[in-house]
Write a structure and sequence with these properties.
Radius of gyration: 25 Å
Largest sheet: none
Number of helices: 5
Order of helices and strands: HHHHH
Number of strands: 0
Shape: flat
């Protein structure tokens, strides 16, 4: 079973899992559709809160230019935001595991050779203007 919700005690979490397991497939689909619908409404509300100047017609135009529906535009925006937040969390977690000592040890394994032509940084004085 997945990690329990932080604000839910173990017995409630187990009861929820049992109910979901016993639920008929069509009811599970309804729950997912409802969650998706709620997610889109919340995303649209968030867009309108952050950009009250945007009308529904402007959102339709943005979606048309992207070649997607408004729902797809909203889902894409939500996914991009989630990816950005998850990336920040991932980088923070990786930074906490890192150390200068490990960094220096990794660098020590790199051979001390002249960079190939395509990997060299151009000399500022040799640039042609």
């Amino acid at each position: 079973m997945r990690e329990a919700l932080s604000d839910t005690d173990r017995s409630s979490e187990l009861a929820r899992a049992r109910i979901l397991r016993e639920m008929p497939p069509n009811r599970k689909v309804e729950l997912v559709e409802d969650a998706n619908r709620t997610s889109r409404l919340l995303a649209l509300a968030g867009i309108r809160a952050r950009h009250p100047e945007l009308s529904l017609e402007q959102l339709r135009e943005l979606a048309r230019r992207e070649g997607v529906s408004i729902n797809q535009l909203i889902n894409s925006a939500v996914a991009e935001k989630m990816a950005a937040l998850m990336t920040v969390d991932y980088l923070k977690e990786r930074a906490e595991r890192g150390s200068r000592q490990k960094f220096k040890a990794a660098l020590a394994k790199v051979p001390d050779v002249k960079a190939s032509k395509e990997d060299r940084v151009p000399d500022k004085t040799s640039r042609r203007g």
